[in-house]
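Exam revision sheet. Question 4 asks you to relate a sequence to its structure. Input first:
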Amino acid sequence: MRPPADAPAPDDPAVLGALLARHGWRRHGGAAGRYVRWTPPRGTGPAGPSLLVPEDPSLPDGAELLAEARAALEHSPDPSARHILVALGTPSDEIHWERRAPGPGTGWAAQERLRAGARALLVAGALAARAAAGHHGARHRRAAEAALGGLLTGPRCSAGELTVLVPVGPDEPYGRPAVDALLGAVHAARDATDYQRATGRADAFRAAVAAGVCRELTEALVTLVAGSEGVRVRFDWAPAAGPPPGRAARPEPVEFSPGDLPALRAAGARYLRDEPAVPVRLTGTVVHLWRETSDGGGAVRLRVLSGADVTEVRAELGEEDYRTAGHAHLTGLPVRIDGRLESGGGFRGLAGAGGVLPLPVDDAERERLLKSLQARPDGFGERDGDGA
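Answer key, C-alpha cells:
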C-alpha cells in the first residue's frame, strides 16, 4: 500500500542512511548507485519490515520510496525506529550517556542519578560556551539552565542509558556551540585526569580551564561516576549538518571510572579555591534589608540589573550606605554599588561593598520597579541565608 502523496519524507536519503547505520540497522546490497535495503538490528525484539532506500533522490520513484521508508519506520516494532523518526523531524546532535551500576541498577534512584549528572554536564557545557572559568558559580547560570528547555530526550532511556537530542538550528538556545564546548571540555577533563593520576601533578587541570573544564563539569562527572562502575559519554553529530569545523566526524567516546574520582574531586576543590574575586560596579534594585539594631550598618540583597553576570547579590553595608539603600527601596529607585564578587559563595556575595548611589529613572520605569518589588514582598525583615 502506497503512502499518501503528502506524507512527509526526509529531504536527503544520505541522512536517513546515516541514522539507520548509527542505530545498528544492517545494509544489504541493491542496484549499485540506485537502491540500498536496510534491515532492523538483530536481537532488539520482533523483526520489522526492511526498508528500501534510494541512494539518489532524483530517481523516478525516489520520493515515493523515501515516503514509504518513513511510513515503515512509523509502524516498525524496532525500538530505534522512533528515535530515527525524531532525528529526521528535528536535525539534532546527540549526546549519549551509559552508566554501569554495580547491581541491577534499574531503580528510580539510579535513573535520577543519571539524569541529574547528565543535566549538570549539559549546564557545564552551556557555561563553557559563554566563558572560560575554573568556577562559574551563579554567573550565567540562569541563562545556561534556561537553554536546556529546548533539548529533547531520546525515546530509549533507562536507569543506565540516556540520550539527549540537541537541535542544530542557528537560533537554538543551547545549540551546537554548547555541544562543541562540552565535547572539548569532557576530553580535556579526561586528559587532565590521566595526567594527574600518572604524575600526581595538577598542572593539566589548570591548563584545561581554557578548554572549558571547570568545577561545574568536575562535579557533574563525580555525580555520574560515584556509586557506579563507570560512565561513558558519546557524541554524534546531526547527519544533516555534519561535524563542526575541526571536529572528527565520529568523536571518540569518553569514559570515566571510580578510580578517577579523587582527581576530579581535588580539581573541583582547587577551582573553587583559586578562582579570583571579580571587581564590579553593578546596578540593582534593593529587595531585602536587615540590621540588628535601629541604627548602624546592615545587610542588603539586590536584584542585579546590570554590571554582573548573576541575578542577585548580598552585601554588608555601613550605616550611611545602608540608609541610602533603604531610601531607594522605599522610593522604587535602583542603586549603583561597588564591590568584589567573591567566588566562595558562587559569586553571590559582594565583599567590600560601598558607594551606594540612587539612580534616577523616569516615572514609568520607577512604577515598573515598584510593582516588581510589591510582587515579591521581602523588604525590611530578618536576615536571609548567609548574607542579607
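Marking note for examiners. The radius of gyration is 27 Å.
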